[in-house]
Write a structure and sequence with these properties.
heterodimer; A: 234 residues; alpha+beta; 5-stranded antiparallel sheet; 4-stranded antiparallel sheet; 32% helix; globular; B: 181 residues; mainly alpha
Amino acid sequence: MNAGRDSEDDLPGGDDALAAEYALGLLTPEETDAFEARILKDRALEARVVAWTESLALLGRDVPAVVPPAALRRRIEDAAWGREARPGLWRQILPYGLGGAAAALLLWAALGLGWLQPAAPGPALVAELALAEGGLHAGYYPETRELLIRRRGLAPPAEGDLELWVIAGDGPPVSLGLVPRDAETVRRALPAAVAALLPDAVVAVSLEPPGGAPGGAPTGPVLGRADVTAYTGT
Amino acid sequence: MTPQQEIEDLLARIALGDRKAFSRLYERTSAKLYGICLRVLGDRSEAEEALQEAYVRVWNRAELYRVNGYSPMTWLITLTRNIAIDRRRKRPARPAERIDLAETLPDLGPGPEKQAADRSEAALLMTCMRTLPPDRAMLVRRAYLEGHSYAELAAMTGAKLNTVRTWLRRALIQLRDCLDR
């Protein structure tokens, strides 16, 4: 606890105000880490952050628009697309002379089979878990320190929650948060110490009570595991 | 197609690598996002660098826009604001600007809002901001647009850190109550 700062109990507003402070970036690094660790497993708190982010973004909309210099557009496009021109996905399909629907179907198939590289790089690290009834994808984006978790054809459990864990070397499992229920995908900022565990680690998923394992360790059956690997675009 | 739907459609296509969609998104949104970078950074060349970083991230991360249920403009604005605030915080420390809270004028009106579909949300926020005492509304706005820490806000206002934190939390509670009505 920082000297001079009141404890949480003395401040008005509770968790909702705390979520707003997090969205505003007002928390100290220690408070941020603690908050992000809570968000991994607290869906209600996560929902408060989303609501505040939406509301606060309206303050951004109130800022007057200013047209950027014309030369900046070209620089930005060059930076985004890279200097060597690579044909876009549609250009790779068009030489086959297909109509719109057929081209779309071929594109869908080609992406699924990995024949075409999406032009945008994906996450830096990924783990693909295969469970009995479906799959889980985890992707890590280092520039925002965010973990994306996606259910692939996997229904949320009728009772309890699926929780992801990272196991680095001989260390104990550390929580990466709950698998989303209502949506198929969620992305959350990971505390720095947790993100640091990911390279070359193993990710596992266990079935836990609602809200996740009550302590810091898994209590339920492990339903799948996978190695964390560098994303290669396939 | 409403403006929000158009942006959503463009982002979906950008996620597939559609360069024309990226150019079109830039045409539609760059003035708003550049305005935010300028407001946060106060310097044209830094704002240009921040804007570039933002759009490169849009190109590389467009598939993320819908995750967590954010509306497309919120995703763009939040991403841009975060990049600009990060750059601002990495600058060498400048002497703290002094704020005289007693001098805060009430916010008389929102900027021109051209997107009719969003007008009601933005108008609601502005209405609610105006229910706050002007100096508290100013603190909220500055926290969002300048990324100050509580320590900096305390130094700038001459009030104790816990006092500023209590002020801001109360303002946020009031804002939330108004927005939820």
